[in-house]
User: Fold these one by one.
Assistant:
Number 1:
Amino acid sequence: QVQLVESGGGLVQPGGSLRLSCVASGFRFSSYVMRWFRQAPGKERELVARISSTGGTTNYADSVKGRFTISRDNAKNTVYLQMNMLKPEDTAVYYCNALAMNRQYWGQGTQVTVSS
């Protein structure tokens, strides 16, 4: 059974930090590109960050470049999103996504709220 389980969300003040984790099971994690998406109320889901299967290549949305870092540990079947200098506009549900050639899987999402 394929599972992606996110954790680490919560309420944080502007300028603060959070680290999201996504633990995968039920598929060959090391063969998949991993991505983090987010969806704010009333907005479309957007791609935040992407990491290649080996971890050697990362890409970011312009809105988070220099503030967010995606990483992975293939030995632990886990992908991370370190979020620093958080802004109110980062408030959203964050989703973990696994992508291979002809299939993809989604986690259930974790809420991140940035507010004073």
Number 2:
Amino acid sequence: VQLQASGGGLVQAGGSLRLSCTASGRTVSTYRLGWFRQAPGKERELVARISSDGSTYYAASVKGRFTTSRDNAKNTVYLQMNSLKTEDTAVYFCAAGPQSSYDYWGLGTQVTVSS
């Protein structure tokens, strides 16, 4: 499975971005899909995930601002990010896995939020 994330960029605080991550190589409709981020000097952290049944999880820092969704017909997962803050600046990665681990990772897309 190959994952390609896109949609990152530079946005002012308070703005919005929508990240997309498309999988190729096989269907990921039965996989759990996650969004992670890593800021300079910090550890990678889970931002959001969506299970195959559509249930979601959000980190406390983004809850109420970010929404993840999936389109199995397009083999794609999305991360809608609203009310962005400077502390959301990071490289965002998508990941996929059939069980409790994430076996496949995308290369990441940079999100920069300016004040």
